[in-house]
Amino acid sequence: MSRALPQTEPASDLPPRVTIYEVGPRDGLQNESSSVPTPVKAEFVRRLVAAGLETVETTSFVSPRWVPQLADAAELLADLDEVGRGPLRPVLVPNERGLDRALEAGVGAVAIFGSATETFAQKNLGRSRAESVQMFAPVVRRAQEAGLWVRAYVSMCFGDPWEGPVPVDQVADACAELMDLGCDQLSVGDTIGTGTTGHVEALLAALDRRGVGVDRIGVHFHDTYGQALANTLTALRAGVTVVDASTGGLGGCPYAKSATGNLATEDLVWMLDGAGVESGVDLDALVETSAWMAQQLGKASPSRVVKALSGG
Amino acid sequence: MSRALPQTEPASDLPPRVTIYEVGPRDGLQNESSSVPTPVKAEFVRRLVAAGLETVETTSFVSPRWVPQLADAAELLADLDEVGRGPLRPVLVPNERGLDRALEAGVGAVAIFGSATETFAQKNLGRSRAESVQMFAPVVRRAQEAGLWVRAYVSMCFGDPWEGPVPVDQVADACAELMDLGCDQLSVGDTIGTGTTGHVEALLAALDRRGVGVDRIGVHFHDTYGQALANTLTALRAGVTVVDASTGGLGGCPYAKSATGNLATEDLVWMLDGAGVESGVDLDALVETSAWMAQQLGKASPSRVVKALSGG
C-alpha cells in the first residue's frame, strides 16, 4: 500500500481557489505550554512557506507579560529577515505600542483583535467594546499610513463562555465597527468552537447586511467540538475564500478541557485536494513539518491526517 | 461557566429529522483491542437506547475465528432480551450460517456486508464480488421470509487501500447488485476514510442513476482523515437522512496508522442540535456513556465533544 490519497471529485458550490491563512506560529504556539526556542520557530515558518503556504502569521507583539510564549517576536523577525516581511506575513498587535514594535521590526502587515462581547472585551482587552474600538482606531490609521495590510480578528463570534449565546446581529455590528476603521480583512473567530453549520450561514448573512461581504471575510474555527471542517465547508459554499488554519492543529482551547485547538491545516488541505480546490499547499511537506514540530513540542498532533500519515 | 452548548441556528438544505444508526457496540467494539465483558456490552447498549438512540446495531454473527471480540453475540442478545429484539436492533451476518445463529437468537433485523472492490471482496469475504452476491442472495431471501429488516453494508466505497481510487459507477453497481436482492437499506462505507465532499456528491448521484435513491441510503464515514462530519453534512444536504455513527468514536481504522475510527455520535449530535435537526438523542447522556465506556476500555475517546465536555 502506498500512502492514501483523496480521490479528486469536484464539489458543487466551492470556489476554485482557497487562501489558507496559516496561524500555527502565532495562534498555535501562543496556546502551547512548551517553550519553543526562537530558531525552531524560524525553521517552522520557513518550512510552512516552503510547503506552499502563502500567508503565514508569524508572531505577536502583545506584551510578554500576557503572552510569554511569543516574547521573542523581534528576535524571530530578525532571524526570518526577508521571509518574515511583506503583506503576507502579518503579526498580531494589541495597541499602538505593539504597532510601534512591529514597525520597528519592519513588518508589512498587522492584525488587531476585538471582541464580539462585552465580557470578553473586558477580560481580554481590559476595557469595554466601544473603548477597544477607540483604542484600535489610531492603530489602523497609522498602519495604513505606513502602507501595511491590516486584518481584524473578532473573538467569540459563535458564543461566549461567560455570556453564552451571542446574537448574530450583535456580532455583525462588532465586526463592522472594526472594518469601518479601514481594515482590509475580517477574521470571524469561533474562539470556543461551539458554532455549527446554520450558525455560520446566519452570521455571514448578518455580516452581509452590515456591508461586510464574503470577499473581505476569513473564517477562524476551533475544533473543540469537532465542527471546524464542516463549518469551513459551509463558509466556502457561502462564498468565503479565506480560511484560518493551524498546521498540525497546534494550539489548545483555553476555554474548554480540551487539547483540541484550531482547525488543522492538513485536514483542510485533504478536503480541498479531494474537491479539486487549489490551495498551493504540498500536503506531504506539511505533514512532515507537523511531525517534526510534534517532536519539538513533545506531544502528538491532534490532526487526523497527521496521525494517519505519520503515526503521530 | 456552565457547559457549552451549540447555539441553535437552522441550516439551509438540511432535513428536519435525521436517524442516527448507532454502530458503537458492533463496528466500534469489533475494532477495539480490549476485550469487553458481555455484561458491559449489554449495559452499553441499554445506555445508548436510554440516551435516545432508536437504532442500535448490537453485535455480529461473524465467525469468532475472525472477530473474537464479538464471539459472545448469542450471550449478549440473551442478556439484552427485549432490548435486543425488533427491527431497530440489527446484527451483522456474513452468510447463511450467521443468519441461522441470528434467527436462533430471535433478532428482528440483519445486516450483510459486501465490497465495492474485487480485492477487498477476496480479502474480507474470501471470494469474488460476483460470488459474494450469490452468497448473500439466499441470506436476504430467507431473512425477508422470516420478516426481518435487512441492511446492506458496502465497504471501500470511497477508495481501497490496495486498489487505490474506485470509480463511483463501479461502486454504484456493486451497491445496486446487493440492493436488487431486496435489501431495505444501503450503507455506503468510507472504510479507509479518504472520501471528501465532492466525492460524496458524485457517489450519491451515481447511486441515483442506478435506481438507489437517497431515501434508501445511509452513510458510513470514518474520521481517519478528519472528513467524516463534513462528508456527513454534504450527504444530508443531498437528501440522505440516515447516518452511521459510533458513540465516543469507538473503533480504530485497521487500514491506517490511526486510532481514529467511525464518526463520533456526539460530534454528529452537536452539529444536528446546533442546526435544529431532530435526532431524539440526549447529548449529555451520551457523553456520560462514552466517558464510562472509555474507563472500561482504559483509553480516551477520540470524540472532540467527549474530550471537551468530560476531559477524556
UniProtKB/TrEMBL annotation, chains A, B:
Per the record, the GO terms for biological process are: ketone body biosynthetic process; L-leucine catabolic process
Q: Which PROSITE patterns match?
A: PYR_CT (PS50991)
InterPro entries assigned:
Aldolase_TIM, HMGL, PYR_CT
> Which residue ranges does the record assign to the Pyruvate carboxyltransferase domain?
18-287
Report the sequence similarity comment from the record.
Answer: Belongs to the HMG-CoA lyase family.
Q: Which Gene3D superfamilies match?
A: Aldolase class I (3.20.20.70)
Q: What is this protein called?
A: Hydroxymethylglutaryl-CoA lyase
Which keywords has UniProt assigned to this entry? Answer: Lyase, Metal-binding
Known Pfam families for this protein? HMGL-like
Q: Which domain of life is it from?
A: Bacteria
Q: Which organism is it from?
A: Janibacter indicus
Highest classification ranks of the organism: Bacteria, Bacillati, Actinomycetota, Actinomycetes, Micrococcales
GO molecular function per UniProt: hydroxymethylglutaryl-CoA lyase activity; metal ion binding
